[in-house]
UniProtKB/TrEMBL annotation:
The lineage of its organism: Bacteria, Bacillati, Actinomycetota, Actinomycetes, Kitasatosporales. This is APC family permease. The keyword Transmembrane applies. GO terms for cellular component: plasma membrane. Its main location: membrane. It is found in: Cell membrane. GO terms for molecular function: transmembrane transporter activity.
């Protein structure tokens, strides 16, 4: 078994708590909590179902693999060892590109909306609006640029801000319910339906994947074999609570039909914070600042791990130039890849500011949705690689093992893969399963565009990413072959 060469200049600084905090900062998504809550009472049921039937086996197989293969690059290394460099390059492209697009196309807009509504007015399309979004994006990028020994404290602070804001909101919602009655729950149906399940499954899977992300910094962990399994287990439990309880709190406080995907969390906070009287305004401002900080550090946490994966792919000869995979000798971070992510996020933000209006808004929303689900698509290769490593490389020491050995690992992997396939299909081809099972589905009412337009943009986005990844791989391969030919042609001295 061969793995990519180790990266020089790296310092081991990540302890168990740091790994856990990075997982919490990356995985818990403030921007999807409101979107999940739009599913109504059955969203609570489906969160619980997916936490048991998906997250538990997911955590088990990734904990074992992350402890057994702790090399820098994480999932890139796993897929490369299992299926070869071309498959790893394609997979990493999908895993990486999600994050600058998400940072520039979702996180920054949600953060700007919260700042504009609860801290200081920014307006829409104003100089202040552009300035806030640029500062937000590049603050997240610079957090990834600084050495991990220092940057980890920023993501840890973000994880703390996230948990604090959610806990404070949930406690306030309970107090509001005790004082005014849990009126939101009275009109909420908790009975699960096929329509609700198919609408929520891609969002919930996207919300729960990513606990393996800190493994991208495997060579910077002090004791990955010992710490990774525990960190994944603890961060998974925290994430489940941080989704389940706030969604239930939003539903209990907000009247039926008042929950919106973008403003769900802060709109519900505006309502329940009325119990604080004159303190309502300052407390809302405080929570809004925590909200923005949490979003920023979530973006930076993903930049830290995804940029390392893509840098390892470049350094391994799989993405245009090995120079893109260089780690700074003093900082120990892939600065060039960080900057590329920042430019990508900025371009996408500028496109959103100019295109997400009028008739173009529905099309842009479709492209953004597909770009975000590319993370889910990347697991179509990552998850099978875990089973391939388990079966082909039994000689590798495994400090942690899934219960029931190879059989338990195989069953857990197949279960996780079934969920990933389902979520990917529903994300790329919405409405098809509803049609198969005779469930009414008005495509244009849901997406604002026709199915033909939707599929043209969704499949076009996927094909474009495949072309870019293939071009990056072939470009570097031809360059390497040319250099080898030149060396062979030189006369011996």
């Amino acid at each position: 078994m061969s793995v990519p060469a180790p990266v020089p200049h790296l310092q081991r600084s990540l302890r168990r708590f740091d790994i856990m905090a990075m997982g919490v900062a990356a995985v818990i998504s403030f921007d999807v909590i409101g979107q999940i809550a739009t599913g109504g009472g059955q969203a609570v049921i489906w969160i619980a179902v997916i936490a048991v039937a998906f997250l538990v086996p997911y955590a088990l197989v990734f904990a074992e693999t992350g402890a057994a293969f702790p090399q820098e690059g994480g999932p890139y290394v796993w897929v490369e060892v299992a299926f070869g460099r071309p498959a790893a390059v394609l997979t990493t492209m999908f895993y990486w590109v999600t994050n600058p697009v998400w940072l520039g196309g979702s996180l920054v807009f949600v953060a700007a909306g919260a700042w504009d509504g609860f801290v200081l007015p920014l307006g829409s399309g104003t100089v202040a609006d552009y300035a806030f979004k640029l500062v937000f994006i590049w603050a997240a990028i610079l957090t990834a640029v600084v050495s991990l020994r220092r940057g980890k404290w920023i993501t840890t602070a973000g994880a703390g801000a996230k948990v604090l804001a959610l806990a404070f909101f949930t406690g306030t919602a309970v107090a509001y319910g005790i004082q005014h009655g849990f009126r939101g729950l009275q009109g909420t149906g908790f009975s699960p339906t096929g329509v609700g399940f198919l609408a929520l499954v891609p969002v919930l899977l996207f919300a729960f994947v990513g606990f393996e992300a800190p493994n991208a910094a495997g060579d910077e962990m002090l004791a990955p074999q010992r710490d990774v399994p525990v960190a994944i287990g603890v961060s998974g439990a925290i994430a489940t609570c941080c989704y389940l309880l706030p969604v239930l709190a939003i539903l209990s406080a907000a009247p039926p039909g008042r929950v919106t995907g973008v403003g769900g969390f802060m709109d519900a906070a505006r309502l329940v914070f009325g119990i604080y009287g004159d303190w309502r305004g300052p407390l809302l401002t405080f929570v809004a600042v925590l909200f923005v900080v949490a979003l920023l550090t979530q973006g930076s946490a993903w930049m830290i791990v995804a940029d390392r994966m893509q840098a390892m792919a470049a350094a391994d000869g799989g993405f245009f130039s090995r120079g893109l995979g260089a780690f700074h000798p003093r900082l120990g971070t892939p600065v060039r890849m960080n900057l590329l992510s920042g430019v990508t996020a900025t371009v996408f933000m500028a496109a959103a500011m100019n295109l997400a209006r009028g008739d173009a808004s529905a099309v842009f929303g479709v492209v953004l949705t597909v770009a975000i689900t590319t993370l889910l698509l990347s697991y179509l290769a990552v998850v099978p690689s875990l089973l391939a490593l388990r079966l082909r490389h039994r000689e590798v020491p495994r400090p942690y093992r899934v219960p029931f050995g190879t059989l338990g690992f195989t069953v857990a992997t197949l279960l996780v893969y079934a969920w990933i396939v389902l979520g990917s299909w529903v994300a790329l081809f919405p409405g098809t399963l509803e049609q198969l099972f005779g469930i009414p589905y008005d495509f244009r009412a849901v997406w604002g565009v026709s199915r033909v337009t939707f599929e043209a943009f969704t499949l076009g986005t996927v094909v474009l990413l495949l072309v870019i990844a293939a071009a990056g791989y072939l470009t570097q391969r031809m360059r390497t072959q040319s250099q080898d030919d030149e060396r062979e042609a030189r006369p011996a001295r």
